[in-house]
Amino acid sequence: MTDVTNAGAYSDPNTTPPLGQTVPLGLQHVLAMFASNVTPSIIVAGAAGLAFGSAEQVYLIQMAMLFAGVATLFQTVGVGPVGAKLPIMQGTSFAFVGVLAGVAATQGLGVALTACIIGGTVHFLLGGVIQHLRWLFPPLVTGLVILAIGLYLIPVAIKYAAGGAAKFQMEAESFGSLMHWSVALTVVVVSLVVKFFTKGFVSNAAILIGLLAGYALAFVLGMVNFGAVGNASWITAIQPLPYGFEFSLGAVVAVTLVSIVSAIETVGDCSATTKAGAGREATDREIAGATYADGLGTAVAGVFGGLPNTSFSQNVGIVGMTGVMSRHVVTVAGLIMIICGLIPKIGAVIASMPLPVLGGGVIVMFGMVAAAGLNMLTEVTMNRRNMIIIAVSLAAGLGLNLVPEAVQYVPGVLKTLMTSAVAPTAVIAIALNLILPEEV
């Protein structure tokens, strides 16, 4: 699956490979992002106190799949100025997990999803000005923000691997048991072996295969309960505003700030896609269209219980690997995700996955988020100025998140922002980058 005959013939986004290649290539895009797409919904649901495997959690997983597909169609098919009309796969964004988990835990899912709707709308409006804001987010700032996201999430991964996280935990006496860690480490080891000792289709599905291996071991150990699968229906009943519409200024501001970072990530993915697939820079229209689609996908998903969407970088790698730039291949991938999202039994199977299985997967995924940030920082000259910006931004952003009591007397809106890890890191990095003089 790594090679497509005459791939150069498909460097035009509007061309389509033969059907026998289009469908498998589309499925490959789905496999590369499937596990990453549903994980944020599971984490936020846990933070909100939803029981693992409950009907509410299954619904959130369904919406993650359904609206990843819908947002992908916004990108690949497009409507007017919306959509880059490039092979860009959309999925639920990890960047928002820290903020939304905190909001869901303290103020509920209604507040969190309302913030997603409003933040998505602002994100959509950024499409008209995004090309003029790129100077605010050089690799130093963007890399720092992505690194902060990964570092913030890694403790969550360890808690899941040990058997619990946030408000929901398995039996206290079994937390950190050898049984839990054997399952989590099976996922990690299998994922790494498959990734580096296989090629193409199988290699790109390494995380998914690792999760399946951990799932199988957990089943053998008696950790899997399929009760929710039997009770789940075959067709999703989509419900607008399932948790109501509850406005919180702090939540909206925090989500909107992350939306700006997400928009910049999408600009990077858009540029990387055209570079990898066609050997050219992305046009202003493509960048604007990609941003419009990002925001619209997030806002629409929020209305029905889905979390914010963004472009998935791992799928950009598939475009570069295959040389197939056809947007219709990714359209097929979007349609597959929509079909998965409309079948609740698929979500129930995912929700039956024990926490240590998920923990093993997110150890790799969250570590890769941090590594992606480090990779962006390699483009930065490590002089004293830039090292100070990195040091102060990370220390303040992660420090306040780890010790939220340090700002316990700060008003609610500011406290939400200051303890979100991502927002303070981004604000401090942008400010210092603008204020501190460049070194000669």
From TrEMBL:
Pfam families xrefs: Xan_ur_permease
Superkingdom to which the source organism belongs: Bacteria
InterPro entries cross-referenced by the UniProt entry: NCS2 (IPR006043), UacT-like (IPR017588), Xan_ur_permease (IPR006042)
Location of this chain's protein in the cell: Cell membrane
GO molecular function, one term: xanthine transmembrane transporter activity
One GO CC term, this protein: plasma membrane
Regions crossing the membrane: 30-52, 59-82, 94-126, 135-158, 178-198, 205-227, 247-267, 329-351, 357-374, 386-404, 416-436
UniProtKB keywords: Cell membrane, Membrane, Transmembrane, Transmembrane helix, Transport
Protein family membership: Belongs to the nucleobase:cation symporter-2 (NCS2) (TC 2.A.40) family.
PANTHER family: PURINE PERMEASE C1399.01C-RELATED
Protein name per UniProt: NCS2 family nucleobase:cation symporter-2
